[in-house]
Design goal:
Order of helices and strands of chain B: EEEHEEHHHEHEHEEHH
Distance between the termini of chain A: 22 Å
Largest sheet of chain B: 6 strands, mixed
Shape of chain A: globular
Structural class of chain B: alpha/beta
Number of helices of chain A: 10
Number of strands of chain A: 0
Helix content of chain A: 55-70%
Strand content of chain B: 15-25%
Oligomer: heterodimer
Largest interface: A-B, 33 and 42 residues
Shape of chain B: globular
Number of helices of chain B: 8
Largest sheet of chain A: none
Chain lengths: 244, 249
Protein backbone atom coordinates (compact mmCIF):
# COMPACT_ATOMS: atom_id res chain seq x y z
CA UNK A 1 0.00 0.00 0.00
CA UNK A 2 2.84 2.38 0.82
CA UNK A 3 4.36 1.78 -2.59
CA UNK A 4 1.01 2.51 -4.21
CA UNK A 5 0.58 5.81 -2.32
CA UNK A 6 4.13 6.77 -3.24
CA UNK A 7 3.47 5.96 -6.89
CA UNK A 8 0.26 8.00 -6.90
CA UNK A 9 2.02 10.98 -5.28
CA UNK A 10 4.80 10.75 -7.82
CA UNK A 11 2.24 10.52 -10.59
CA UNK A 12 0.27 13.54 -9.40
CA UNK A 13 3.38 15.64 -8.89
CA UNK A 14 4.56 14.73 -12.39
CA UNK A 15 1.74 16.79 -13.90
CA UNK A 16 2.23 20.48 -14.69
CA UNK A 17 -1.46 21.14 -13.93
CA UNK A 18 -1.05 19.75 -10.44
CA UNK A 19 1.79 22.19 -9.85
CA UNK A 20 -0.42 25.01 -11.08
CA UNK A 21 -2.97 23.95 -8.47
CA UNK A 22 -0.33 23.75 -5.76
CA UNK A 23 1.20 27.14 -6.51
CA UNK A 24 -2.03 28.98 -7.26
CA UNK A 25 -3.79 27.54 -4.23
CA UNK A 26 -0.92 28.36 -1.90
CA UNK A 27 -0.39 31.93 -3.11
CA UNK A 28 -3.92 33.24 -3.66
CA UNK A 29 -5.05 33.57 -0.03
CA UNK A 30 -1.93 35.37 1.25
CA UNK A 31 -1.94 37.65 -1.79
CA UNK A 32 -5.59 38.64 -1.25
CA UNK A 33 -4.89 39.35 2.45
CA UNK A 34 -2.04 41.58 1.33
CA UNK A 35 -4.15 43.42 -1.28
CA UNK A 36 -7.10 43.89 1.08
CA UNK A 37 -4.86 45.36 3.76
CA UNK A 38 -4.61 48.52 1.69
CA UNK A 39 -8.34 49.12 1.61
CA UNK A 40 -10.41 48.55 4.71
CA UNK A 41 -13.50 49.85 3.07
CA UNK A 42 -13.39 46.94 0.65
CA UNK A 43 -12.68 44.41 3.35
CA UNK A 44 -13.53 45.36 6.92
CA UNK A 45 -11.22 43.84 9.50
CA UNK A 46 -12.88 41.35 11.82
CA UNK A 47 -12.38 37.90 13.32
CA UNK A 48 -12.76 36.32 9.87
CA UNK A 49 -10.01 38.38 8.24
CA UNK A 50 -7.47 35.92 6.90
CA UNK A 51 -9.82 32.96 7.33
CA UNK A 52 -12.26 34.32 4.75
CA UNK A 53 -9.46 34.72 2.23
CA UNK A 54 -8.60 31.04 2.57
CA UNK A 55 -11.75 30.44 0.54
CA UNK A 56 -10.14 32.00 -2.54
CA UNK A 57 -7.28 29.54 -2.38
CA UNK A 58 -9.72 26.65 -2.74
CA UNK A 59 -9.02 26.73 -6.46
CA UNK A 60 -5.83 24.85 -5.55
CA UNK A 61 -7.42 21.79 -3.93
CA UNK A 62 -10.14 21.80 -6.58
CA UNK A 63 -7.57 21.60 -9.37
CA UNK A 64 -5.63 18.91 -7.50
CA UNK A 65 -8.75 16.85 -6.80
CA UNK A 66 -9.91 17.06 -10.40
CA UNK A 67 -6.57 16.48 -12.10
CA UNK A 68 -5.72 13.49 -9.89
CA UNK A 69 -8.46 11.62 -11.75
CA UNK A 70 -9.08 13.52 -14.98
CA UNK A 71 -5.44 12.86 -15.96
CA UNK A 72 -6.34 9.16 -15.99
CA UNK A 73 -9.12 9.72 -18.48
CA UNK A 74 -7.63 12.17 -20.99
CA UNK A 75 -6.55 10.70 -24.29
CA UNK A 76 -2.83 10.03 -24.46
CA UNK A 77 -2.49 11.07 -28.09
CA UNK A 78 -3.98 11.43 -31.55
CA UNK A 79 -2.42 8.14 -32.68
CA UNK A 80 -4.62 6.21 -30.30
CA UNK A 81 -7.66 8.31 -29.38
CA UNK A 82 -9.10 5.67 -27.08
CA UNK A 83 -5.87 5.19 -25.14
CA UNK A 84 -5.72 6.66 -21.66
CA UNK A 85 -3.36 6.56 -18.73
CA UNK A 86 -5.97 4.61 -16.78
CA UNK A 87 -4.98 1.51 -18.75
CA UNK A 88 -1.41 1.72 -17.48
CA UNK A 89 -2.67 2.50 -13.98
CA UNK A 90 -4.95 -0.53 -13.82
CA UNK A 91 -2.38 -2.82 -15.36
CA UNK A 92 0.03 -1.78 -12.60
CA UNK A 93 -2.61 -1.88 -9.85
CA UNK A 94 -5.57 -4.04 -10.90
CA UNK A 95 -7.30 -4.20 -7.52
CA UNK A 96 -9.59 -1.26 -7.93
CA UNK A 97 -10.53 -0.51 -4.35
CA UNK A 98 -6.91 -0.75 -3.31
CA UNK A 99 -5.91 1.57 -6.15
CA UNK A 100 -8.61 4.04 -5.20
CA UNK A 101 -7.52 3.96 -1.57
CA UNK A 102 -3.93 4.69 -2.59
CA UNK A 103 -4.92 7.47 -4.93
CA UNK A 104 -7.22 9.06 -2.36
CA UNK A 105 -4.54 8.86 0.32
CA UNK A 106 -2.02 10.57 -1.97
CA UNK A 107 -4.47 13.40 -2.67
CA UNK A 108 -5.34 13.85 1.01
CA UNK A 109 -1.66 13.98 2.00
CA UNK A 110 -0.81 16.52 -0.65
CA UNK A 111 -3.79 18.81 -0.04
CA UNK A 112 -3.45 18.59 3.75
CA UNK A 113 0.19 19.68 3.46
CA UNK A 114 -0.72 22.48 1.09
CA UNK A 115 -3.60 23.63 3.31
CA UNK A 116 -1.46 23.56 6.45
CA UNK A 117 1.26 25.67 4.85
CA UNK A 118 -1.22 28.09 3.29
CA UNK A 119 -3.28 28.48 6.47
CA UNK A 120 -0.15 29.12 8.54
CA UNK A 121 1.14 31.65 6.01
CA UNK A 122 -2.19 33.46 5.73
CA UNK A 123 -2.75 33.67 9.48
CA UNK A 124 0.81 34.82 10.10
CA UNK A 125 0.50 37.48 7.42
CA UNK A 126 -2.82 38.66 8.90
CA UNK A 127 -1.17 39.02 12.30
CA UNK A 128 1.72 40.97 10.84
CA UNK A 129 -0.60 43.33 8.95
CA UNK A 130 -3.40 43.80 11.47
CA UNK A 131 -1.88 42.86 14.82
CA UNK A 132 -4.27 42.80 17.77
CA UNK A 133 -7.30 43.84 15.74
CA UNK A 134 -7.65 40.28 14.48
CA UNK A 135 -7.55 37.64 17.22
CA UNK A 136 -5.30 34.66 16.54
CA UNK A 137 -7.65 31.85 15.50
CA UNK A 138 -7.82 28.88 17.84
CA UNK A 139 -5.98 25.74 16.77
CA UNK A 140 -9.29 23.97 16.22
CA UNK A 141 -10.39 26.62 13.75
CA UNK A 142 -7.15 26.32 11.81
CA UNK A 143 -7.52 22.54 11.70
CA UNK A 144 -11.07 23.03 10.46
CA UNK A 145 -9.80 25.23 7.63
CA UNK A 146 -7.33 22.50 6.62
CA UNK A 147 -10.12 19.93 6.77
CA UNK A 148 -12.29 22.14 4.57
CA UNK A 149 -9.57 22.22 1.93
CA UNK A 150 -9.12 18.46 2.06
CA UNK A 151 -12.86 17.81 1.85
CA UNK A 152 -13.19 20.24 -1.07
CA UNK A 153 -10.44 18.41 -2.95
CA UNK A 154 -12.13 15.08 -2.22
CA UNK A 155 -15.48 16.38 -3.41
CA UNK A 156 -13.98 17.52 -6.73
CA UNK A 157 -12.19 14.16 -7.00
CA UNK A 158 -15.35 12.17 -6.28
CA UNK A 159 -17.30 14.12 -8.91
CA UNK A 160 -14.70 13.29 -11.58
CA UNK A 161 -14.74 9.66 -10.43
CA UNK A 162 -18.39 9.68 -11.46
CA UNK A 163 -18.19 11.86 -14.60
CA UNK A 164 -14.77 10.59 -15.83
CA UNK A 165 -14.16 14.03 -17.28
CA UNK A 166 -12.59 16.94 -15.47
CA UNK A 167 -13.43 19.97 -17.55
CA UNK A 168 -17.09 20.54 -16.69
CA UNK A 169 -16.76 19.76 -12.97
CA UNK A 170 -13.68 21.96 -12.62
CA UNK A 171 -15.30 24.88 -14.44
CA UNK A 172 -18.42 24.61 -12.30
CA UNK A 173 -16.52 24.30 -9.03
CA UNK A 174 -14.26 27.25 -9.76
CA UNK A 175 -17.09 29.51 -10.90
CA UNK A 176 -19.18 28.46 -7.92
CA UNK A 177 -16.38 29.22 -5.48
CA UNK A 178 -15.26 32.52 -6.99
CA UNK A 179 -17.43 34.46 -9.43
CA UNK A 180 -21.05 33.39 -8.98
CA UNK A 181 -21.82 31.11 -6.08
CA UNK A 182 -24.80 29.08 -7.18
CA UNK A 183 -24.83 27.52 -3.72
CA UNK A 184 -24.99 30.95 -2.06
CA UNK A 185 -27.75 32.15 -4.37
CA UNK A 186 -29.71 29.01 -3.53
CA UNK A 187 -29.57 29.90 0.16
CA UNK A 188 -31.64 32.96 -0.77
CA UNK A 189 -34.27 30.68 -2.29
CA UNK A 190 -34.41 27.86 0.21
CA UNK A 191 -33.04 27.31 3.69
CA UNK A 192 -32.18 23.77 2.72
CA UNK A 193 -29.32 25.15 0.60
CA UNK A 194 -27.51 25.85 3.85
CA UNK A 195 -26.75 22.14 3.90
CA UNK A 196 -24.97 22.17 0.54
CA UNK A 197 -21.39 20.99 1.03
CA UNK A 198 -19.58 24.24 0.34
CA UNK A 199 -21.99 26.42 2.35
CA UNK A 200 -22.13 24.09 5.34
CA UNK A 201 -18.42 23.30 5.18
CA UNK A 202 -17.38 26.95 5.36
CA UNK A 203 -19.10 27.24 8.72
CA UNK A 204 -16.49 24.91 10.16
CA UNK A 205 -14.17 27.91 10.43
CA UNK A 206 -16.02 31.06 9.27
CA UNK A 207 -17.80 32.88 12.13
CA UNK A 208 -19.71 35.83 10.69
CA UNK A 209 -21.97 34.25 8.14
CA UNK A 210 -25.36 35.44 6.97
CA UNK A 211 -26.59 31.97 6.14
CA UNK A 212 -30.22 31.14 6.91
CA UNK A 213 -29.32 28.15 9.05
CA UNK A 214 -26.45 28.50 11.50
CA UNK A 215 -24.48 25.32 12.00
CA UNK A 216 -21.98 24.65 14.76
CA UNK A 217 -18.46 23.91 13.43
CA UNK A 218 -18.86 20.24 14.34
CA UNK A 219 -22.24 19.97 12.64
CA UNK A 220 -20.86 21.79 9.59
CA UNK A 221 -17.97 19.32 9.44
CA UNK A 222 -20.35 16.39 9.66
CA UNK A 223 -22.61 17.73 6.92
CA UNK A 224 -19.74 18.29 4.49
CA UNK A 225 -18.11 14.94 5.35
CA UNK A 226 -21.42 13.21 4.69
CA UNK A 227 -21.62 14.79 1.23
CA UNK A 228 -18.07 13.78 0.40
CA UNK A 229 -18.61 10.25 1.71
CA UNK A 230 -21.76 9.87 -0.36
CA UNK A 231 -20.10 11.08 -3.58
CA UNK A 232 -17.01 8.94 -2.94
CA UNK A 233 -19.13 5.86 -2.27
CA UNK A 234 -21.11 6.36 -5.47
CA UNK A 235 -17.93 7.00 -7.47
CA UNK A 236 -16.17 3.97 -5.98
CA UNK A 237 -19.11 1.73 -6.79
CA UNK A 238 -19.08 2.88 -10.41
CA UNK A 239 -15.28 2.57 -10.61
CA UNK A 240 -15.48 -0.99 -9.36
CA UNK A 241 -18.17 -1.98 -11.85
CA UNK A 242 -17.34 -0.11 -15.03
CA UNK A 243 -15.11 -1.42 -17.76
CA UNK A 244 -11.96 0.68 -17.88
CA UNK B 1 3.26 -11.09 -2.94
CA UNK B 2 0.12 -12.35 -1.32
CA UNK B 3 -0.86 -15.97 -1.71
CA UNK B 4 1.49 -18.82 -2.50
CA UNK B 5 3.18 -19.58 -5.78
CA UNK B 6 0.78 -21.10 -8.23
CA UNK B 7 1.05 -24.78 -8.97
CA UNK B 8 4.18 -25.50 -10.99
CA UNK B 9 2.27 -26.48 -14.09
CA UNK B 10 0.51 -23.11 -14.22
CA UNK B 11 3.59 -20.88 -14.05
CA UNK B 12 3.55 -18.64 -17.07
CA UNK B 13 0.41 -20.19 -18.51
CA UNK B 14 -2.42 -18.04 -19.83
CA UNK B 15 -5.80 -19.75 -19.99
CA UNK B 16 -9.13 -18.50 -21.23
CA UNK B 17 -12.14 -20.66 -20.56
CA UNK B 18 -15.42 -19.93 -22.28
CA UNK B 19 -15.07 -16.16 -22.00
CA UNK B 20 -18.19 -14.32 -23.16
CA UNK B 21 -18.85 -10.61 -23.32
CA UNK B 22 -21.74 -8.41 -24.43
CA UNK B 23 -21.24 -4.75 -25.22
CA UNK B 24 -24.07 -2.41 -26.14
CA UNK B 25 -26.42 -5.41 -26.32
CA UNK B 26 -24.25 -7.11 -28.94
CA UNK B 27 -22.46 -10.33 -28.10
CA UNK B 28 -18.84 -9.55 -28.99
CA UNK B 29 -17.22 -12.70 -27.55
CA UNK B 30 -18.70 -16.19 -27.68
CA UNK B 31 -17.14 -18.74 -25.34
CA UNK B 32 -13.55 -17.86 -26.20
CA UNK B 33 -11.20 -20.58 -24.95
CA UNK B 34 -7.50 -21.01 -25.57
CA UNK B 35 -4.17 -21.25 -23.80
CA UNK B 36 -0.73 -19.71 -24.26
CA UNK B 37 2.24 -21.58 -22.85
CA UNK B 38 5.77 -20.80 -21.69
CA UNK B 39 8.55 -20.97 -24.23
CA UNK B 40 6.18 -20.30 -27.12
CA UNK B 41 4.95 -17.32 -29.04
CA UNK B 42 1.19 -17.58 -29.37
CA UNK B 43 -0.28 -15.51 -32.18
CA UNK B 44 -3.83 -14.28 -31.69
CA UNK B 45 -5.00 -13.69 -35.21
CA UNK B 46 -8.15 -12.09 -36.53
CA UNK B 47 -9.50 -9.25 -38.62
CA UNK B 48 -10.17 -5.84 -37.09
CA UNK B 49 -13.19 -5.98 -34.83
CA UNK B 50 -13.00 -9.75 -34.35
CA UNK B 51 -12.60 -9.41 -30.57
CA UNK B 52 -8.82 -9.59 -30.10
CA UNK B 53 -8.49 -6.43 -28.03
CA UNK B 54 -11.67 -7.16 -26.08
CA UNK B 55 -10.29 -10.58 -25.15
CA UNK B 56 -6.94 -9.16 -24.07
CA UNK B 57 -8.60 -6.42 -22.02
CA UNK B 58 -10.58 -9.04 -20.14
CA UNK B 59 -7.43 -11.10 -19.62
CA UNK B 60 -5.74 -8.02 -18.13
CA UNK B 61 -8.63 -7.23 -15.79
CA UNK B 62 -9.50 -3.96 -17.55
CA UNK B 63 -12.92 -5.13 -18.67
CA UNK B 64 -15.16 -7.71 -17.12
CA UNK B 65 -16.26 -10.91 -18.81
CA UNK B 66 -19.91 -11.72 -18.61
CA UNK B 67 -19.05 -15.33 -17.99
CA UNK B 68 -16.04 -17.60 -18.20
CA UNK B 69 -12.57 -17.24 -16.75
CA UNK B 70 -9.37 -15.57 -17.94
CA UNK B 71 -6.37 -16.60 -15.87
CA UNK B 72 -2.66 -15.85 -15.73
CA UNK B 73 -0.65 -18.49 -13.86
CA UNK B 74 -3.97 -19.87 -12.67
CA UNK B 75 -5.22 -16.60 -11.19
CA UNK B 76 -7.37 -13.74 -12.43
CA UNK B 77 -5.22 -10.70 -13.23
CA UNK B 78 -7.12 -8.61 -10.72
CA UNK B 79 -5.87 -10.84 -7.93
CA UNK B 80 -2.18 -10.29 -8.67
CA UNK B 81 -0.68 -7.91 -6.14
CA UNK B 82 2.45 -6.87 -8.05
CA UNK B 83 1.30 -7.80 -11.55
CA UNK B 84 4.14 -6.05 -13.41
CA UNK B 85 6.50 -8.69 -11.99
CA UNK B 86 4.45 -11.44 -13.62
CA UNK B 87 2.85 -9.93 -16.71
CA UNK B 88 4.01 -7.26 -19.11
CA UNK B 89 1.25 -5.75 -21.22
CA UNK B 90 1.25 -3.53 -24.27
CA UNK B 91 -2.05 -2.08 -25.41
CA UNK B 92 -3.00 0.83 -27.64
CA UNK B 93 -0.81 3.90 -27.12
CA UNK B 94 1.99 4.28 -24.60
CA UNK B 95 -0.24 4.64 -21.54
CA UNK B 96 1.71 7.75 -20.56
CA UNK B 97 -0.04 11.07 -19.92
CA UNK B 98 1.01 13.54 -22.62
CA UNK B 99 2.48 16.00 -20.14
CA UNK B 100 4.69 13.40 -18.47
CA UNK B 101 8.20 12.52 -19.52
CA UNK B 102 8.90 8.92 -20.47
CA UNK B 103 11.13 8.51 -17.46
CA UNK B 104 8.55 9.97 -15.05
CA UNK B 105 5.90 7.63 -16.46
CA UNK B 106 8.06 4.56 -16.00
CA UNK B 107 9.14 5.66 -12.54
CA UNK B 108 5.63 5.86 -11.12
CA UNK B 109 4.82 2.52 -12.70
CA UNK B 110 7.94 1.01 -11.12
CA UNK B 111 7.10 2.55 -7.75
CA UNK B 112 3.58 1.12 -7.82
CA UNK B 113 4.97 -2.40 -7.99
CA UNK B 114 7.83 -1.89 -5.58
CA UNK B 115 10.43 -1.93 -8.36
CA UNK B 116 13.55 0.24 -8.12
CA UNK B 117 13.42 3.58 -9.95
CA UNK B 118 16.60 2.61 -11.81
CA UNK B 119 14.55 0.06 -13.76
CA UNK B 120 13.05 2.97 -15.72
CA UNK B 121 16.39 3.82 -17.32
CA UNK B 122 17.22 0.16 -17.87
CA UNK B 123 14.05 -0.54 -19.86
CA UNK B 124 14.39 2.71 -21.81
CA UNK B 125 17.84 1.49 -22.80
CA UNK B 126 16.40 -1.89 -23.84
CA UNK B 127 13.90 -0.30 -26.24
CA UNK B 128 16.37 2.30 -27.49
CA UNK B 129 14.75 5.36 -25.95
CA UNK B 130 17.53 6.45 -23.58
CA UNK B 131 18.09 9.63 -25.53
CA UNK B 132 14.42 10.58 -25.33
CA UNK B 133 13.88 9.83 -21.63
CA UNK B 134 13.24 13.47 -20.74
CA UNK B 135 10.90 14.16 -23.61
CA UNK B 136 7.19 14.51 -22.84
CA UNK B 137 5.15 11.52 -24.02
CA UNK B 138 2.79 13.80 -25.96
CA UNK B 139 5.65 14.69 -28.28
CA UNK B 140 6.55 11.10 -29.09
CA UNK B 141 5.98 9.69 -32.55
CA UNK B 142 3.75 6.64 -32.96
CA UNK B 143 6.73 4.29 -33.12
CA UNK B 144 8.31 5.86 -30.04
CA UNK B 145 5.00 5.55 -28.15
CA UNK B 146 4.90 1.84 -28.93
CA UNK B 147 8.43 1.44 -27.68
CA UNK B 148 7.61 3.36 -24.50
CA UNK B 149 4.62 1.07 -23.99
CA UNK B 150 6.89 -1.92 -24.44
CA UNK B 151 9.40 -0.44 -21.97
CA UNK B 152 6.59 -0.27 -19.40
CA UNK B 153 5.73 -3.91 -20.12
CA UNK B 154 9.33 -4.91 -19.40
CA UNK B 155 9.67 -3.04 -16.07
CA UNK B 156 9.10 -6.06 -13.84
CA UNK B 157 11.05 -8.47 -16.08
CA UNK B 158 7.86 -10.55 -16.38
CA UNK B 159 7.61 -14.17 -17.42
CA UNK B 160 4.46 -13.43 -19.44
CA UNK B 161 4.05 -10.84 -22.20
CA UNK B 162 0.68 -9.81 -23.61
CA UNK B 163 1.07 -7.58 -26.66
CA UNK B 164 -1.84 -6.13 -28.58
CA UNK B 165 -0.89 -5.39 -32.21
CA UNK B 166 2.74 -4.76 -31.21
CA UNK B 167 4.02 -3.97 -34.71
CA UNK B 168 1.35 -1.37 -35.48
CA UNK B 169 3.03 1.90 -36.32
CA UNK B 170 6.52 0.46 -36.39
CA UNK B 171 8.83 0.99 -39.34
CA UNK B 172 10.45 -2.05 -41.01
CA UNK B 173 13.43 -1.85 -38.67
CA UNK B 174 11.09 -1.70 -35.69
CA UNK B 175 9.08 -4.67 -36.94
CA UNK B 176 12.20 -6.74 -37.30
CA UNK B 177 13.38 -5.67 -33.86
CA UNK B 178 10.03 -6.68 -32.35
CA UNK B 179 10.13 -10.07 -34.08
CA UNK B 180 13.60 -10.80 -32.73
CA UNK B 181 12.57 -9.51 -29.35
CA UNK B 182 9.56 -11.82 -28.91
CA UNK B 183 11.47 -14.81 -30.29
CA UNK B 184 14.23 -14.12 -27.78
CA UNK B 185 11.75 -13.93 -24.88
CA UNK B 186 10.15 -17.22 -25.87
CA UNK B 187 13.54 -18.89 -26.25
CA UNK B 188 14.21 -17.96 -22.62
CA UNK B 189 11.11 -19.84 -21.57
CA UNK B 190 8.77 -16.87 -21.33
CA UNK B 191 5.18 -16.84 -22.53
CA UNK B 192 4.33 -14.43 -25.33
CA UNK B 193 0.76 -13.82 -26.43
CA UNK B 194 0.52 -11.32 -29.25
CA UNK B 195 -2.41 -10.26 -31.32
CA UNK B 196 -2.19 -9.20 -34.93
CA UNK B 197 -4.21 -8.87 -38.06
CA UNK B 198 -1.02 -9.21 -40.11
CA UNK B 199 -0.87 -12.83 -41.20
CA UNK B 200 2.51 -12.65 -42.89
CA UNK B 201 3.99 -11.19 -39.76
CA UNK B 202 2.49 -13.85 -37.51
CA UNK B 203 3.61 -16.65 -39.80
CA UNK B 204 7.17 -15.41 -39.23
CA UNK B 205 6.88 -15.10 -35.47
CA UNK B 206 4.37 -17.46 -33.90
CA UNK B 207 4.73 -21.06 -32.75
CA UNK B 208 1.05 -21.43 -32.00
CA UNK B 209 -1.87 -19.66 -33.59
CA UNK B 210 -5.35 -18.91 -32.29
CA UNK B 211 -7.69 -17.59 -34.98
CA UNK B 212 -10.66 -15.50 -33.88
CA UNK B 213 -13.44 -14.25 -36.13
CA UNK B 214 -16.59 -12.40 -35.10
CA UNK B 215 -16.02 -13.16 -31.46
CA UNK B 216 -15.47 -16.92 -31.88
CA UNK B 217 -12.27 -18.94 -31.89
CA UNK B 218 -12.42 -20.75 -35.23
CA UNK B 219 -9.24 -22.75 -34.92
CA UNK B 220 -6.13 -23.07 -32.79
CA UNK B 221 -2.98 -25.13 -32.64
CA UNK B 222 0.64 -25.20 -33.73
CA UNK B 223 1.32 -22.97 -36.74
CA UNK B 224 1.89 -25.94 -39.05
CA UNK B 225 -1.37 -27.57 -37.95
CA UNK B 226 -3.37 -24.43 -38.53
CA UNK B 227 -1.86 -23.87 -41.96
CA UNK B 228 -2.46 -27.55 -42.78
CA UNK B 229 -2.70 -28.21 -46.50
CA UNK B 230 -3.14 -24.54 -47.36
CA UNK B 231 -0.28 -22.80 -49.15
CA UNK B 232 0.04 -20.17 -46.40
CA UNK B 233 -1.40 -18.96 -43.11
CA UNK B 234 -3.27 -16.34 -45.09
CA UNK B 235 -4.98 -18.93 -47.26
CA UNK B 236 -5.80 -21.00 -44.21
CA UNK B 237 -7.24 -17.92 -42.56
CA UNK B 238 -9.56 -17.09 -45.42
CA UNK B 239 -10.65 -20.68 -45.71
CA UNK B 240 -11.48 -20.79 -42.00
CA UNK B 241 -13.20 -17.46 -41.60
CA UNK B 242 -16.16 -15.85 -43.24
CA UNK B 243 -14.02 -12.87 -44.28
CA UNK B 244 -13.94 -14.09 -47.85
CA UNK B 245 -12.81 -12.29 -50.98
CA UNK B 246 -16.31 -11.09 -51.90
CA UNK B 247 -16.70 -9.29 -48.59
CA UNK B 248 -13.44 -7.43 -48.13
CA UNK B 249 -14.63 -4.77 -45.65
Amino acid sequence: MVSLVRAELRKLLGLPTAWAGLILGSLLAPVVVLLNAGSERRAPVDADTGMMELGVGLIGPMILGVVALSSEYTSTGEDAPGARQLTATLIAAPRRMRLLAGKTAALVLLVAAQAAVTTAATVTLTQVLHGDRVPVPAAGRLAAAVLYWVLTALLAYAIVLITRNGIVPLAFLIVNSTFVSVSYLLTKVTDAAAYLPDIAGAQMFIRTSDFPVELSPAAAGLVMSAWVAAFLAAGALLFQRRDA
Amino acid sequence: MSGGRPARSLVGVITLERVAKTKNRTRILHDVSFAARPGRVTGFLGPNGAGKTSTLRILLGLDRAESGAALVCGRPYRELSHPLRTVGALLDGSGAHRARTARAHLRWMAASNGLPAARADEVLEMVGLSGEARKRAGRYSLGMSRRLGLAAALLGDPEVLVLDEPVNGLDPGGIRWMRDFVRDRASRGHTVLLSSHLMGELAETADDVVVIDRGRVVTQGALAEVVGDHPSLEDAFFALTASGAGDPW
